């Protein structure tokens, strides 16, 4: 039995950015969905191009990795290899990706850098990814690094049950972490339209960096 997925998303240019280097990806298949956010490293020449190229590669190739066996680690390792072959200078981007199985209420996720995944219930909001950084401005892992090995990529699985999921780039999470209660209350709303409008109002004008999110009920 498949379940209908409800989600909202947006990508908002940072107040101090000339262009938005973030990107996002939504793929809806009969038995699964793929959600992903990408944060092109702002200091990298090819950050914005890398975030787009990564999303395009996954969109074109995801079916090869999401059959009877879920191979997110291999998918993202191959995405990194693809970025290195594009010829883009400094093709650096972080990512957070979720594969949602519609038949058994599970989700599998992978990430690199400081793009995050939160799980949200009616009682708590918890970050379940660990940031790859020394500080807010110093990343230790990101796509586009030729030194990455497949062992640098993660693949973890959880049951979704009644949990909501929030994928977001660091420009979004920095605003969220300063006012977690306000965001938590918004995430409890029943209407996706209301959630979308209120999230955007909480972000706009406060996000120094590009802010991208996907919220999945």
UniProtKB/TrEMBL annotation:
Residues 6-217 form the PPM-type phosphatase domain. Signal peptide: none annotated. Pfam families: PP2C_2 (PF13672). It comes from the Bacteria. This is Serine/threonine protein phosphatase PrpC.
